[in-house]
Write a structure and sequence with these properties.
Pfam families: DUF6403. InterPro entries: DUF6403. The protein is 89% helix and 0% strand. It is mainly alpha-helical and 100 residues long. It has a domain of 66 residues. Helix 1 runs parallel beside helix 3 and helix 2 packs antiparallel against helix 3. It is rod-shaped and about 80 Å long.
Length: 100
């Protein structure tokens, strides 16, 4: 009889851990997907600004290349955020140069 209680307790403990860990894992995966999507959108936007400008800015090109490299290496959430930041800075450089 004691084995039934032991087995029941083990099932309850495992279910408790599962109930706590599954939502965290899903939230982490969703955060990573959003960060990657944001970075890719920023890279695309910077590339459009570069193509619309028609001139060469070495610093912006370097930033955009770094952002593309970070995304190509399939890094985690932190590298996606850095890639998005690099792409946004590159876009600001290209857009700022258009307006004077």
């Amino acid at each position: 009889m004691w084995m039934v209680w032991l087995l029941g307790a083990a099932v309850l403990v495992i279910a408790g851990f599962g109930a706590a860990l599954v939502p965290r894992a899903r939230a982490s995966a969703r955060t990573a997907a959003v960060a990657r999507s944001t970075a890719l959108a920023a890279i695309d936007s910077a590339a459009i600004s570069r193509d619309a400008g028609g001139w060469y800015c070495p610093e912006a090109e370097r930033l955009l290349a770094r952002a593309e490299l970070l995304m190509a290496n399939r890094g985690g959430t932190a590298s996606a955020r850095v890639a998005a930041d690099c792409a946004r800075r590159a876009e600001r450089l290209w857009r700022g140069s258009f307006h004077g």
